[in-house]
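User: I'm curious whether this sequence folds into something compact or stays loose and floppy. Could you predict its structure so I can see for myself?
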Amino acid sequence: MAFSYMPGFGNDFETESLPGALPQGMNSPQRPAYGLYAEQLSGSPFTAPRGTNERSWLYRIRPSVRHTARFSAFAQPHWKSAPNVDDHQLALGQLRWDPVPIPAVETDFVAGIRTVTTAGDVLTQVGMAAHVYVANVDMVDDHLFNADGELLVVPQQGGLRFVTEMGVIEVAPGEICVLPRGLVFKVELIDGPARGYLCENYGAKFTLPDRGPIGANCLANPRDFKTPVAWFEEKDMPCRLIVKWCGRFHVTEIGHSPLDVVAWHGNYAPYKYDLSTFSPVGAILFDHPDPSIFTVLTAPSGEEGTANIDFVIFPPRWLVAENTFRPPWYHRNIMSEFMGLIRGQYDAKEEGFVPGGMSLHNMMLAHGPDATGFEKASRADLKPVKLDDTMAFMFETRFPQMLTRFAAELETLQDNYIDCWRDLKKRFNGTREGDWS
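Assistant: Here's the prediction. I'll summarize afterward.
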């Protein structure tokens, strides 16, 4: 079955899966068509300024109060929330991992979430968590909503189908999707076992970064974001709803599917984005620009220019700068950087950083090209070169990212990562030319 989408970022959409299900000219008629219930889902305070006020009206078979019964505690030992400190004994350092293996036992999307880092405080709604997910079976009658934050999903292996109460989104590696805080959904696998990355955003919602002097075009263009049309499931059989709330998990059992929204309108909705439509800009004469020039989405912090989270990609692009060391430069940063690789190679780390892997460079810990990358870039013929078949990304935050015990004890942690810089030589010899022998 092919699912349809509506284009645009932050638009006020309207969609119905049955003709006449969506009221016109009002939100809450006395008797909605088809015997539906009108319900509002708010993503901001009622009095938020117009530019940040987000809400959608849903017209559903049963109101959400019928989608919960008595809750009980639900074990989710690998999904952690901030603050999560002193969880392990691993010393501070630059860290890198090979891919997390797909489990041998049946594991759905929710059970397969493993937290790697947490930052900030989920209770005060600042910061984030970086997770990986691994899954080999569908969520059939289980559903989830996350009251703690929105989820940015970055598939690396295998496609996912997010069946949400506001429509169906299919994403493949090379695409992303964002699921708003509070949205009910389940996840199905499209083509076998799946692995990828998750950014759980506790703070202000992701939005498009201001382009400043870049102007009206390039980077991520609003038209390329896709929101699903209305779709509903009328299923009267036992289902479960799992809730993440203030870092803890709860489950309730109900006798029907909660994915029963027949029509909706508003600007608080899930969406997907194809990373290949990102139009990168960069230096066309000399020097390497800041990586922030590749920001796809940003979650503001309230302090201008300092993000709660930036989602940055490193896509295929041309390198043409003259007399320039073209890979990212060596760096110490007030921000903390979690990186993943979707496909190909990352130009600053051609060895050891593999698709499905991840790295963590926390605030003020030095990082940059490995010795092999430095040698290659320092001696390269500076003709135009295209970086092709590559896609890396970064979850960057103003907060320190605290490692979980799972990540610290993960068998795929590369104990020798720090050695990638060991062969960087002293080239200073008192002459202007230096020692390049």
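Summary: Residues 74 and 352 are 37 Å apart (CA to CA). The chain has a mean pLDDT of 95.
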